[in-house]
Automatic annotation (TrEMBL):
Residues 2-314 form the FAD-binding domain. GO terms for molecular function: FAD binding; monooxygenase activity. This is 2-polyprenyl-6-methoxyphenol hydroxylase-like FAD-dependent oxidoreductase. Gene3D superfamilies: FAD/NAD(P)-binding domain (3.50.50.60). Keywords: Monooxygenase, Oxidoreductase. The keyword Oxidoreductase applies. It comes from Actinoplanes campanulatus. PANTHER family: MONOOXYGENASE (PTHR13789), PUTATIVE (AFU_ORTHOLOGUE AFUA_6G14510)-RELATED (PTHR13789:SF309).
Length: 379
């Protein structure tokens, strides 16, 4: 029985790796001929635990840098509150910031599965025998099971799942189920790499105009993320960064003078009525992309792959998609609710936000991440 995974990013490779660890045959189809991997990625503790379950704990420890502490600061550099992530997650699940390309290489290393690229999928149709897949060259092939790991603008979701769009007024409802921005967060953001200006931990500065996050990825380099607060506009002109953050503290100004890689991207969410139809399912961002405020994209994707692999390994594939969704919905809904609460807090007047954060910030961190420290439901 053969599985096709559509998408060769983090979600697709993690799912393929989980399936092969359970001796399930799998082929990966990736539409791009190369994948440079983008910039970097912050992996909270549950992501680190997920990679360990894929057999990659030792390899991950060789990448990037551990994130032992978080600091939330005002635009004038006043420390609002801090979190000891080392103590919260423990030594086996210390968060890490790693280059995305290194993470993809780790997932692909020794992967006992066929990865075909460039191989575009243009349509998937559930059938009595599994799913009929149409490729970019016009060929059609039937697979026993298809996994859509093809991101926010998923072809598998658009052509095979066809779940109802979110209700009007819900965050993420503006563009339907195909990939939407949150109603309260900025429509776009900037991501970048830069020489480290002396930051030794996860640090965010937040003011009236925007939030500016820096995370060390090694001794010399930081990964950064910048967005408007309160749903403001983020211009595609890089001058927006200097206009918005030019009067922020010295580490921010030094980064603005030393940007190396710079990437402007939409902030998109996916909230669908269903993740499964017949023997077709969605994993990762294709199912439940969320704004990156809690850094759960890779974490939830890896967990998705592990749960799905356990279900398919038992050989009973009828109804596996529905069982997978039932197991995963609660955890994903928790992250979505936490994201919504964060977006509402970001929209508060800056004076009120800075007044409240020292009291509610640590509790919000614990409320969000504590359930994610515990094992996720499995078959």
């Amino acid at each position: 029985m053969d599985v096709l995974v559509v998408g060769g990013g983090i979600a697709g490779l993690a799912t393929a790796r989980a399936l092969r660890r359970r001796d399930v045959p799998v082929t990966v189809a990736e539409r791009g001929d190369t994948d440079a991997g983008g910039l970097a990625i912050n992996l909270p503790g549950n992501a680190v635990t997920g990679f360990a379950a894929l057999g990659l704990a030792d390899g991950l420890q060789k990448l990037g840098r551990t994130t032992r502490r978080r600091e939330y600061r005002s635009a004038r550099d006043r420390l609002l509150f801090a979190v000891d992530e080392d103590a919260f997650w423990g030594p086996e699940a210390r968060p890490r910031c790693v280059r995305r390309s290194d993470l993809l290489a780790l997932l692909a290393d020794g992967l006992d599965a066929t990865v075909r690229r460039p191989l575009a999928v243009t349509g998937v149709r559930p059938s009595a025998d599994g799913a009929e897949v149409t490729f970019g060259d016009g060929t059609v092939k039937t697979f026993d099971f298809v996994v859509g790991a093809d991101g926010v603008h998923s072809i598998v979701r658009a052509t095979a799942i066809d779940g109802p769009a979110p209700s009007a007024g819900e965050p993420g409802s503006a563009g339907g189920r195909s990939g939407t921005q949150s109603a309260l967060l900025s429509a776009a953001s900037w991501r970048f790499m830069a020489p480290n200006p002396g930051v030794d931990c996860w640090t965010v500065w937040s003011g009236k105009g925007g939030a500016f996050l820096l995370i060390p990825v090694d001794d010399d380099t930081v990964y950064g993320y910048a967005s408007a607060t309160g749903g403001g506009t983020v211009s595609a002109d890089a001058g927006w960064l200097r206009n918005t953050f030019g009067d922020y503290p010295a580490p921010v100004r030094r980064v603005l003078d030393g940007l190396t890689d710079l990437y402007h991207s939409p902030v998109e969410e996916v909230r669908t009525g269903t993740w499964a139809a017949g023997n077709c399912v969605l994993v990762g961002d294709a199912a439940h992309a969320t704004a990156p405020v809690w850094a759960q994209g890779a974490a939830l994707a890896v967990e998705d792959g592990l749960v799905l692999a356990d279900l398919l390994a038992d050989g009973d594939w009828d109804g596996a998609g529905a069982r997978y969704e039932q197991l995963r919905r609660g955890r994903v809904t928790h992250v979505q609710a936490a994201t919504d609460r964060f977006s509402r807090a970001a929209a508060l007047p800056v004076w009120l936000r800075d007044l409240l954060l020292p009291r509610i910030g640590p509790r919000t961190y614990r409320t969000t991440y504590d359930p994610l420290r515990h094992p996720f439901p499995t078959p």
